[in-house]
Amino acid sequence: MAAGAGIDIYSGVARMAGKVWGSLHRAAEPSRTAVVVVHPSSNFLGHYLLGPLAERGVDAVGLNTRYIGNDSALIMENCVLDVGAAIGFLRERGYEKVVLIGNSGGGGLTAFYQSQAESPTVRATPAGDPPDLTKAALPPVDGLVSLMAHPGRAIVYTEWLDPAIVDEHDPLRRDAELDMFDPRNGPPYSPEFVERYRAAQLARSRRITAWVREQLAALDKRDDGLRDLPFLVHGTVADPRFLDTALDASDRTPGTLWGPAVTSNLLPATLGHHTSLRSWLSQWSVDDSNCDGPRHIARTNVPTLVMYGTADQVCFPSHARSMYDAIPHDDRKLVPVEGGNHYLQGQPDLIAHVADTLVGWIEAKGLRA
Fold it and tell me: Which Pfam families did the record assign (predicted)?
């Protein structure tokens, strides 16, 4: 992997090794096609599709970025570099066709990657730091797949940000008029409440961004080399769609990937509670992050498959539609996975169905070498 602009991962071993790690599952017969499944921070070494794809004759890679298991200082532009390192590694080893799958949070990342591989434009992070992607080694892939994916971490984070929190240091001080967990507001939620709620989410995100920029400006005045600081964000799992399934209607049941929304919203292990100033701008700020899936997928020119689960509690039908609608050409396909949950947990028949669909699409597009 290419080094980052600062120390953004804790492990000295990982930094000094200069490597990102992947798990390759080989087909029984030699395959010159590799399918790569990636996410900005989740551990995909044991992804559920690797074995099934290899069994169907296609080599499959579960790829991790340098931020495996810890996105607190994640820089999206470095994730693009890590994907590029992996694609280059596979090309050097003779793979003639490479298909890149963005699963969950990987959807926005893979669109961002291919956009910059085909026609690079991003010269710095939103904080003005390296890398310059116009000078990076980013081999284009031959096909893109968005699988149970949302359009980007900053987009979905803003959709999940709890606007009822009135004190960034005290998540239990709440504005009842903007509290989706107050039964007086729903569910079901009125269109008027949802409109106010969405506006308040955006306003909270922008308040945090303004504070982040103030902190960075203060750091710039220091002469001791300190360039970043960590901070905490409370209330990051509060999308009304978690409780009101008539919003963005699908087959899902109420709740979240982590359990009941009211507790998941404040659990330490859920989305994006711990971050740094520079990571906030790159990863979570909806006005600043470069990782906007629809914007970037609109700049790509390879065959693209979008698959979504109709029972997914994380990525909703509108997320899949926003990615699909942004694809600028006709070599695209939108496929619902009926009854599929976010990671197809406990659904072996649907895992087989998704693997069959992927391999069938790869073959139909001439991507099986």
Answer: Hydrolase_4
Residue where the block lists tokens 């028949």: 349
pTM summary value: 0.97
pLDDT digits (tens, 9 = 90+) for 24-66: 999 999 999 999 999 999 999 999 999 999 999 999 999 999 9
The predicted-structure confidence for 189-220, as pLDDT tens digits, reads as follows: 999 999 999 999 999 999 999 999 999 999 99
Please check whether residue 304 is in contact with residue 143, taking contact to mean a CB–CB distance below 8 angstroms: yes
Domain extents for the chain? Answer: 12-151+290-364, 156-284
The β-bridge partners of 145 are 101, 305
CATH superfamily of 12-151+290-364: Alpha/Beta hydrolase fold, catalytic domain (3.40.50.1820)
For residue 333, the cross-strand partners are 305
* DSSP 8-state secondary structure symbol assigned to residue 135: G
Number of other CB atoms surrounding residue 238 within 10 Å: 26
Q: In terms of C-beta density within 10 A (0-12 exposed, 13-18 middle, 19 or more buried), how is residue 79 classed?
A: buried
What Rg, from alpha-carbon coordinates, does the chain have? Answer: 20
Phi and psi torsions of 222, nearest 5°: -80, 155
